[in-house]
Amino acid sequence: MKDTHAIGGLRHAGQGRSPPHGRGQTHPKDQAGPSSVIVVDEPSRPLLVCFSHLRWSFVWQRPQHLLSRAARHFDVLFIEEPVFEPVEISLLRVEAVAPGITVAVPVLAQSQSYAADQVQARLIREFLHERSHPKRVFWYYTPAALGISGDFDRNLTVYDNMDELSAFRGASPDLVAQEAELLTQADLVFTGGRSLYEAKRGAHPSIHCFPSSVDAAHFARAREAGPDPDDQAAIPHPRIGFFGVIDERLDRELLAATASLRPDWHFVMIGPVVKIEPESLPHRENIHWLGPKPYGALPDYLRHWDLGLMPFALNEATRFISPTKTPEFLAAGLRVISTPIVDVLRDYGEAGLVAIAETPASVALSIEALHAEPPEAWRERVDRHLAHNSWDRTWDAMHALLREGLRQDEAPLLLVHTPTPA
C-alpha cells in the first residue's frame, strides 16, 4: 500500500543517528507530486511505540514495569508479534489495557503467512498515520521488528536490550545481523544488566546500563501476614520456591537432584512453561508445579515460603541474564540461593545478599545453612541495598535521556498528505 502521508519533523530511520530534520521540514520522498500541508494543533503527549517479542499479558517483567511508568509522559503503543487466525482480511487488534497504554496485535490471515512482514508493516503504518503526536519514539525489545518498521519515521530510536535473544532456544539466525542494524539506527541503547553492558559497550556511543529493578513495596507485602493460597496451603514445610518463566534456562537436573537429596523439603515452582516440553520437567512428590500466577498474587505465595531458589542452568541462554526476580525475592524478605549467574554473583552474591551454589550438594548445604540462620540482620542489609533500587528510579533516569534526545525544536506538527493516484 502506498505511503500516503508522513509526519514532518520526524527522522527517517535510514538516517541512523544523524540530527532530526529541522522545524517544518519534509523528507525528500514527501516532496514529489501534489501535496497539501496541514498544520495540526500539537497534542500534549508524544507517542512511544514499543516493538516487543513478549506479550503484554505474559509474565509481568521489565517491559511492563518501564512502559507503565512511561505512560505518565507518553501515549504508549505496545506492538506484539503477530498471530495467525482464520480471518479473511488481516487486521490490527487494538486494546486499551491501562491509562495511556494500548496493545496492538497484528492478526494475519493464514493465507498471507508468506508476506507476514509486509502485511504487518502496512497495518501498523496505517494505524500510525491516523494519529498525530508532536514527537514519536520507537522503543525496541526485539531487533526482528526492524523488518516491519525499519523505514518508519520517528524522532528517537531506543533499543532496550534486556536479553541476548540470539542465544535463546528457537532464536532466528537473523537476529545477530538485525541487532547490528538496529545498533546503527538507535540513538540510545539500554542494557538489562552489567555483563550485557560490558559485552555491548563498544558497539554504540550512547549505551547505558540499567539492571533489573524492583517494586519493593509490592513484594514487601510478602512480609505481612496473610492467608496461604488454596493451591499451596496443603504443601508441607519447609518450602523452597521459584517464580518466573520456566524454559531452557532452568536447570531441571539440578532441581531434580536437589529434591532427591532432601525428600522432606518441598520445592514450589510458579510460572508458565515455554519452549520446553512439560514432560521434560522433573516430577517428584516434593516438587510442586503450580503454573503461572498473576503478578499481583505473587506476594501471597512468597509470604508462605521459607527460602527462594534460582536454579538457572549455566548455558548460552543465561550468560548475560540479570534476573528481575533476584531483588524481588529480597524485597519479599526471602533469602535465596542461586547458581553462579554472573550478574547475580557480582551484584548480590559478593555483597552477601544471595547465597551462590552450583551442585546439588552445595545447594542443599546452602539451604540448610540459611534455614538455620535468623534473617533479621540480613533483612536490614537487604533493605539498605534496595533503598537505591527501584523501577521508578530506573525510569526517571531513562526518561531524562529520552527528554534530552527529544529536546529539538518545538514546531507545530506538520502532516504532509500526498494523494493516492486514482
Automatic annotation (TrEMBL):
Gene3D superfamilies documented for this protein: Glycogen Phosphorylase B (3.40.50.2000)
Location of the region described as Disordered in the Swiss-Prot/TrEMBL record: 1-36
Listed name of the protein: Glycosyl transferase
Domain of life: Bacteria
